[in-house]
Amino acid sequence: xxxxxxxxxxxxxxxxxxxxxxxxxxxxxxxxxxxxxxxxxxxxxxxxxxxxxxxxxxxxxxxxxxxxxxxxxxxxxxxxxxxxxxxxxxxxxxxxxxxxxxxxxxxxxxxxxx
Amino acid sequence: xxxxxxxxxxxxxxxxxxxxxxxxxxxxxxxxxxxxxxxxxxxxxxxxxxxxxxxxxxxxxxxxxxxxxxxxxxxxxxxxxxxxxxxxxxxxxxxxxxxxxxxxxxxxxxxxxxx
Lengths: 114, 115
What we know:
The structure holds two protein chains of two kinds. By secondary structure, chain A is mainly beta. Chain A contains no helices and eleven strands. In chain A, strands 2, 4, 5, 6, 9, 10 and 11 form a seven-stranded mixed beta sheet that branches. A four-stranded antiparallel beta sheet of chain A has the order 1-3-8-7, with no helix packed on it. In chain A, a hairpin with a 6-residue loop joins strand 9 and strand 10. By secondary structure, chain B is mainly β. Helices cover about 0% and strands about 50% of the residues of chain B. Chain B has strands at about 5, 10-15, 20, 25, 30-40, 45-50, 60, 65-70, 75-80, 90-95, 105, 110-115. In chain B, strands 2, 5, 6, 10, 11 and 12 form a six-stranded mixed beta sheet that branches. The termini of chain B are far apart. Classes of the chains: A mainly beta, B mainly beta.
């Protein structure tokens, strides 16, 4: 199955600043998915990133707040912009397993905004 | 839109016992996949088991098995001979179609294995 390297693993940020999270996959994938997991909650999809096109955002998430880049088939970044304490969450990227037996997730980024 | 419901926020069981986690879903899709994911305190999401809706046979993976009732839209996970390492959050997830679609997750069940 695909292996995803996600960075940083955690960060503490000041409100009003931005953080960029990176995901590197060890194989080429068509789509990458970005999820948010608020404290004690389930995972919610933020957006789907295709290489060569703009990301598709879910209801409640906007590009100005969560810009995404997808420069090639193995890499993507998610930026959390103008952060507030409500953005404190775990952010995870995900890709479909090459054998299509499921989805592989990055190890997650625990973000705390103070 | 699909919804996934896990009605058991928390469960605990003695080590070596069997436990069943419940999941129901709602969809108008005819082709879809269902998954159980495990999230230990390390927060890594780990795929436990997968079920294709077009397969009548219930999926099994070692100590993990599912009871898939398509008509009832039910997808429970049975863990046999539970081990301390099974302690984690367990999420049921739904994916429409045949691939490269988003996952819709349930709210999760926190499972504690008691030594």
